[in-house]
User: Fold this.
Amino acid sequence: GKLAAVLDHMTDGILIVDAEGSIRLVKPAAGKVFNIDLQASLGQSLPEALRLHQPYDLWQQSQKAHEPQQASFEYKKQAVLQASAIPLGQSLPGHTLLLFQDITRQNQVEAMRRDFISNVSHELRTPLTALKALTETLRDGALEDPPVAQKFLDRMETEVDALSLMVMELLELSRIESGRVPLNLQPSAPAEMIRAAHDRLSLQAERAGLQLVLECPADLPAVQADAARIQQVLVNLLHNAIKFTPEGGSVTMGAAEQGGMVMFFVRDTGIGIAPKDLPRIFERFYKADRARSVGGTGLGLAIARRMVEAHGGKIWA
Assistant:
């Protein structure tokens, strides 16, 4: 009884098939995974019940080899199953236990980790290559020409600053993701947070020849927020808007009440984002084609997203 209860509550799909390949036992999780009727599948062959050939092939391999076999395969759309076929030998002669684990999430995490490492390497290589070239040029004689040497040192400082910023943002992101950023949640006035972000970047907008517009009713309800952190998000969005809006355009930021929540927004008349890039702009290091030439670490929006989600909110474009 206890064993049956344990098997019924396992999240892995479990099947037992006999020597003919007919299903003798099927547990609820397997029914969910393959979307089959538990009762109806009993006595059916594997391909007939599961409508897939891979489990049948795996079962055959284990029958021939007389030892456990493993394989992973796609089922449904972009979902991946890890399957094991284990001959039950003397305990149930001729019978085989089939175990199915959904490893879609692990695969996605692994792919994201690979992308992340490749992106970090790529982003670090650019400033490091520039620093190496500048150092070599100084060593090869530019050092003897003070005005040129000064120009090269300025460029080196710019590259080092870019590297420092990237390392700082990576650390910030990892702190947020591991929940090590304590949020000081207080009732905060939306208008004040917007005003603070506006004041920090108004000079930059003016220099870029842009009009900075505020649209924020004064009577908006206070929100539970770490005001400094939300300001940081708004500054980031505003900075992006200014960076990608040509001279003569305008950037509007504000807030409005919407269904018991307050929605903050930043809108601009700039170059915009292609629809294919919209779902991905909040990923670490993802840069839309138009953004590549402008520089930046590609981490700002990822930090913004994590910070908003840490508040229980949602961010989109």
In short: The radius of gyration is 29 Å.
